[in-house]
Amino acid sequence: MSESPDVTPPVVPFAAPDVGEAEIDAVVEALRSGWLTTGPRAAAFETEFAEFLRTQAGAHAAGGAEAVVPDEVHAVALNSATAGLHLALEAIGVGPGDEVLVPTWTFTSTAEVVRYLGADPVIVDVTDDLLLDLDAARAALTPRTRAVMPVHLAGLPVDRAGVAALAADAGISVVEDAAHGFPALSSGIPIGLGASEAVVFSFYATKTMTTGEGGMVVTHDADLARRIRTMRLHGISRDVFDRYSTPGAGWAYEIVAPGYKYNLTDPAAAMGRVQLRRAVAMRDRRRAIADRYDEAFADLPVELPPREHREDDLHAWHLYVLRLGEDAPLDREAFVARLGEEGIGASVHFIPLHRHPYWRKTYGLDAAAYPVAERHFPHVVSLPLSSGLTDAQVERVVDVVRRTLGGR
Ligand SMILES: *Cc1c(COP(=O)(O)O)cnc(C)c1O
């Protein structure tokens, strides 16, 4: 047996899950309990999620100022953020003939849920920080516009006050796609609280906290929350857990609408409750990794990810989106391939909606209408960013990126 001189380089997955023994124990406990579907753990997860947001508001209230918390915070757990976006739009009454403003720089979920309801997404350009361009959104308003769906891309908070002003002027609703936005703050207020009709979080496997698959809608509107609770489970007027916990009337329910099957299971909620307790520590770890990348790449031919630009904003750091400069020694495709050869997972977030055949053909979209997205798209690359990365993995990414881009 010959000794290999090469040490296998550590592989750095693009989205390393950060799930430990506590999550595993919680899921096992849920399985042993016999509640395999939506039950007490899902209900507790909702209460604790709302409480977490309130606590964040208190923790970040500026020097002695009152924490800005709406009187009511309703959190409704679902089996995905896509389900949450769908039901939020349904609950505010979006339907055929309506238009909803969506940034081109997002995942297809944001726009597809508008189609579920027979309405039309109006896809608008972004600013240089890859967030919805509020001027472009204003220019796209029509008498049919019913809502706007800003996306906290990568975890960078949108200008929520600007969105709220646009919505108030136009008389439309706001549904925030916060799939990347947990836990983050916009102007000192946690994303999830604030004036928007609904804010939707994702607990997909790669997101900042996970239940494998899952999502949460947060709203200050009790009627909206009630409608979403009804529609997430077949349009039944009371959920399974309530039925079983009401003595004597376990069999009784009413169907009040043709609903959906969007409920979150208890084993998934059990995992979410543990992740929630770790959410601040996980965010701090991701921020530390982003800081390390920024410092290590400052002299390279790249543009670093945009940082918070309003006081009291706080980035969730779901993604680290680097942009290769015109003077980089290789293009994005070659760069991603090179990282792959070195065992480093990289990705692209996102291919703008207007570039996908379905959206382009259905709405006759012309790339010329998206000059900012078109300018940035060829250059963006997402590097590994997860609280599950070790220091050695982070340094491996730093080393390979620096070597590949000609850093000394
Ligand atoms: C992941 C994601 C979604 C969908 O989340 P799911 O929980 O997988 O449905 C929606 N919007 C954006 C921007 C996302 O990245």
TrEMBL record:
Molecular function (GO) terms listed?
pyridoxal phosphate binding; transaminase activity
**So which cofactors does this thing need?**
pyridoxal 5'-phosphate
Which is a Pfam family this sequence falls into? Answer: DegT_DnrJ_EryC1
UniProt GO BP:
polysaccharide biosynthetic process
Residues at the active site: K207
Keyword tRNA processing in the entry? The reply is: no
Q: Which family does it belong to?
A: Belongs to the DegT/DnrJ/EryC1 family.
Please state what the protein is called. Putative aminotransferase
